[in-house]
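Running co-folding for DTB.
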Amino acid sequence: MIRNNWTLDEIRNIYHKPILQLIVEAAEVHKQYNAIAEVQVCTLLSVKTGGCPEDCSYCPQAARYNTDVKAQKLLSYDEVIDNAISAKNSGSTRFCMGAAWRNVKDGVEFDRVIDMVKGVNAIGLEVCCTLGMLNEDQAARLKEAGLYAYNHNLDTSDEHYDEIISTRTYDDRLKTLDNVEQAGISVCCGGIIGLGESDEDRIKLLYTLATRAKHPESVPVNALVPVKGTPLAEQSKVNVWEMVRMIATARILMPKAMVRLSAGRNDMNIEQQGLCFLAGANSIFAGEKLLTTPNPEVDQDRMMFDVLGLTPRESFKEENMSASICS
Ligand code: SAM
Ligand code: DTB
Ligand code: SF4
């Protein structure tokens, strides 16, 4: 049964279970709702890099921090399509375009993104964007162009948010999520662990996600990649059990969501990632770069799929399944 009425106490009890018990329970939920050997392979492309006016203290793309990221203006339509074709050829079924924008502004750049969405959709990939805040009209235009999903993370709890970002509010983020949902676009929303937050902050983030009227279809769980020059550069790396605990709790609360093992894989071996899949993660980002930081090589991931007996998930699986049930 899918529940949207979880209480904070229930979530606390799940989150704090002894880790092996938590993994077993999450694995049972995962097995009941999903094909446990299937992992979706997605590709990220930074279509506009750096120079962002926001002050997200984890982010190498914020203009105000002195990081090694070189700002790059919006890529051309052709560059993006070439990347999408390579992503498809290397086995990805979802292609996510990220822009270091605070929010989308109407004009020639957004028009170009709309064309990119159409082009990537035509290749047969699930097309996703993460472009910052959106208004209702912009969400409707993206939907019209064929956008499948929109990524917009809440990152942490409402209470901890001000410690991490001062240039926008939690409510701004929630408003964009509502605009995306209203437009009929699939919602991708998750967070980052390792920002100096408490267990209670992680529990509250999960509570916010799992008590939405409709769960996000996709929940990325990122481990902070500490980047030189950002305020969180010296933050200690999260330990794998924290990642497993977060993934397992997300899986139990939101049984059908795609739980994405996102940033942080570059520091994890196959055994550690295997634990994350056992605990309910069923997607990765592939390719040697996330947006600006390193990620495992495609060949390394192929080997991991072999060792763990995983198979890549087809694209548009939800739609294909409902279409075959209806026909
Ligand atoms: N500018 C848009 C926004 O903030 O929504 C889209 C791009 S932004 C880079 C996408 C997400 O990447 C952020 O919401 C954050 O969760 C994640 N992210 C950014 N830097 C990260 C880091 N150093 N480690 C882990 N995740 C990070
Ligand atoms: C998400 O939650 N993680 C991805 C994707 N959504 C856009 C981004 C991770 C970015 C990590 C830092 C970087 O590479 O710049
Ligand atoms: Fe800008 Fe997004 Fe980075 Fe924040 S996370 S600084 S909004 S690119």
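Result summary
The radius of gyration is 18 Å.
The chain has one domain: 8-326.
Job closed.
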